[in-house]
Amino acid sequence: MRWCVVPLVAVLSLVAPSELIAAPPEARKLALPETPYKYADPKLPANFEERWVKALDTTPADNPTTDAGAALGRALFYDTRLSASDTVSCGTCHIQQNAFAEPRKVSVGHEGRRGDRNAMSLVNLRFARAGLFWDERAETLEEAVGLPVRSRIEMAGRDGPALLKALAVDARYGALFKAAFGTTEVTDERVRKALAQFIRSMVSCDSKYDRSASKVASVKDEFPNFTEEENRGKAVFLQHCNLCHHIGEGKHVAFFDMFRSLNNGLDPDANVLDGGRGDVTLNPTEVGQFRASSLRNVAVTGPYMHDGRFDTLEAVIAFYSTGVMRHPNAGAVGRFGFSAKDQSALVAFLKTLTDETFLTDPKFSDPWAGDAKPSAKLPLPAVAKSAEPKKRESVADRLARGVGLEAGEALPWLKGLDKNGDGTLDKGELEPLLAVLVKTRVGSLSLERGPRGGGGPAPKGPRPGAKGDTLLGDFDGDGTVDENESRAFGAMKRLTELGDGDGLRRLVRTDRFLGGFELTTDRAEAARKVLNAGRTDLARRVLALDLDTLGKMEKLTGADAVARYQGLVIDQQVAAVRTRTARDPDPRPVVERQVAQFDKNNDGQFSPDELTELATALDRLAGGFGCAAPEAIDMAQFTRRFVAYDPAGKGSVAVAKLPERLVDFAVRGDRNRDGILSPAEIDGFIRTSAFGQLLSEGIYVGGGFADALVRHADLVDELELPDETRKAVEELFAEHNRKLTVMKNETVADQFAKFRDAVGKKAPLAAKR
Questions:
Q1: How far, in Å, are 195, 332, 394 from residue 198 at the CA level?
Q2: What is the pLDDT of residues 641-685, one digit of tens each?
Q3: What is the DSSP code (8-state) at residue 59?
Q4: How far is residue 571's CA from residue 684's CA, in Å, rounded to a whole number?
Q5: CA-to-CA distance for 687 and 471, rounded, in angstroms?
Q6: Helix and strand element counts for the chain (H, E)
Q7: How deeply is 34 buried, as exposed, middle or buried, from its count of CB atoms within 10 A (0-12, 13-18, 19+)?
Q8: Alpha-carbon gap, residue 82 to 76, rounded angstroms
């Protein structure tokens, strides 16, 4: 299920005609300078001019940022006429002095309707390679800007034709559209393009950090303009936080951005109403994953997290220090266990990312005057008083129930195992510790976060060889394929057939691959376009083949059998996920080895110092030491989340009661169009949509999309088809596999020829050993 670009003229059926009101009074003045501000090609510091940064630029060829286009986008961004009630603009929730985030816990939109997420900062989206919004439901900025306008909660989707007419009859807009696009014509595409240009021009790069980074050779050096505490915080950030909030490559580059959605252990399990990225992809392994905004200007973008649960940076750092929970999708995420000084230093460093010039730059300010309803000044909700703390259970009771201990409780518990009072623990005395670790499946016990897994196996296929007039793998055109060329061809083939994941990972792999050819900037960009085009073309052709095969299968078996097959495929994939995340105990030898690493002198005794180090590692476990392993997530979890919006408890839910992000899905799942989602409709449509995701993106197969159907051909046997029909389906799948193999080989061969031309028949460098 992919979100498609819907024109602004599309009207949500949930918005009543009575909600559409007249244009605002003429008293509102549009104060724009006669000569537009400079939005295109802004002057950037040296760290933003590196090749790595340019590779991240998402500006599309058909919508380059221009001064006139961004000026038009600025007027539209702050114009409340885009909302049905004439009280809400984009600037209502995205406030300049808050780095175009908002100071409220969750957004408040049309007629005071509250959302359930905090508005993200819009800073540096020009370089955002991941999808947009917390759940990445929009792929491009041009797509993203249209979604809030249509949202029944945010802006209520003023009638498209009426909106465009209101803008068209405004002479001020006529001049702006003509300057931006050459004519006065007002279209929804032009509105979206102008908004995207304005937002893409919001580049923040003049913070204390940037000015200090320019004075050193590497970001790892101490900054001369930093205080001792700020430099300490920078070191802490580079050691820990940079794992997710990437600074980028190069000596100075610093985006402080996430290039994909991640699960940070914010909640202990999947039984929450907001599934994040998982609710978009219907992939159980992505439930609870969210994409965060850039950390630039983070000191002014609170409250924090997707639901605004933390009011201050101090609270955020405290969470990562001691509050990270166990979640089946959190991977190797633990608690950092920062000292008080490190926490304070980290906050001090994050404050150096504030760009005061950006926060007050007039070219990003509200150009409308005389607005009687300054929506940006809506009151903040009152902070609820904390409830009286409940009496804590004993450590023993909590460990027995699988409730994790608080930071600092592991060491006293370990010392309590010292039965003979000699101040050390031997293997016998450590037995209770081993029992808890075996039971709770810690997986890995170390002082740092472990590496993330991911990716699929390398694709199988023919080795480099002849293909027409081109010898596959012969990059330099000398008629032979040496070891380096064979290695490079294999890497190029993987980039095409598997794509090496999404977002930053693919970008890094592509950049690393191109780095093996010593190319000029122009040739590197041309080669990158060839690689991206090859993968995109193969994905498009394979999806068409998959859909054609399914269509033929439906003619042979009927729609019900195809639907059952789709459900079997998804159930099999989810079963594989559950196998990897089952709550089975860890093998005893594995746990013993994990603990033994803290016995530094291998004498079989744990000294006080060794116990302290062991306790520190236990404190850093997600959920706390003793926290039971969470249940794996299955497809039924998505059904449970929908049903959770059913206050009557009848198992059905009204489409209108669902949050905005689920409405589009729900409307298509409501097969009988009665406005109610029954359990059968929910469950069936979830599996059908998840199967569509499997074909289009390969979300369950480690990034590979090219053989989704072939991998599951054996499931045809479970459909209990007549022998003749079953044999016909098996032959259909075999033919699908043959076509797929030819398609892959043709694409790789064509891409190799184009790539060789793009790099100028240049041989790859020898691999580094």
A1: 5, 38, 57
A2: 777 887 777 777 887 777 777 776 776 777 777 778 877 777 777
A3: -
A4: 12
A5: 44
A6: 27, 8
A7: exposed
A8: 8
* Same domain, residue pair 23 and 67: yes
Is there a contact between 289 and 276 (Cβ–Cβ < 8 Å)? yes
Share of the chain above pLDDT 90, in %: 33
Q: Is residue 11 part of a domain?
A: no
The dihedrals phi and psi of 386, each to the nearest 5 degrees, come to -70, 140
Same domain, 329 and 416: no
Neighbours of 668 (CB within 10 A): 12
Give yes or no for residue 173 having a pLDDT over 60: yes
Region 162-175: mean pLDDT is: 87
- Asked whether residue 644 is domain-assigned, the answer is yes
* Chain position carrying tokens 């009204």: 654
State the pLDDT at residue 687: 74
Identify the pLDDT of residue 198: 98
Residues 322 and 408 in one domain: no
In a domain, 35, yes or no: yes
Tokens of 414: 């370990």
CATH number of the domain that residue 48 is part of: 1.10.760.10
Q: Pairing mode, if any, of strands 425-426 and 368-369?
A: unpaired
Residue ranges making up the domain that contains 195 = 17-204+360-377
Together in a domain, 189 and 309: no
Q: Token pair of 505, please?
A: 């990972």
Residue 138 is predicted with a pLDDT of 86
Provide the residue count of the chain.
769
Strand partners, 30: 368
pTM: 0.77
> Burial, 641: exposed, middle or buried (Cβ in 10 Å; 0-12, 13-18, 19+)?
buried
Q: Return all residues near 659 (Cβ < 8 A) that are at least 6 apart.
A: 115, 116, 273, 274, 645
For the chain, how many structural domains are there in total?
Answer: 5
Q: What's the rounded mean pLDDT across residues 39-68? A: 85
Query: The tokens 């699988």 sit on which residue?
Result: 402
Higher pLDDT, 456 or 504: 504
350-398 tens-digit pLDDT: 999 999 999 999 999 999 974 434 334 334 334 344 445 456 689 999 9
CA distance 561 to 582: 30
Residue 491 to residues 143, 450, 485, 534: CA-CA distances in angstroms? 33, 26, 10, 14
58 with 191, same domain: the answer is yes
Concatenate the DSSP letters of all residues of 96-152 into one string.
Answer: GGGTTB-SSSS-B-GGG-B-SSPPPP-TTGGG--SPBSTT--BSSHHHHTHHHHH-T
Residue reference for tokens 């940006």: 376
732: amino acid identity, one letter:
L
| Same domain membership, residue 399 and residue 346 | no
Torsions phi, psi for 654 (to 5 deg): -75, 135
Peptide bond into 303 cis (omega under 30): yes
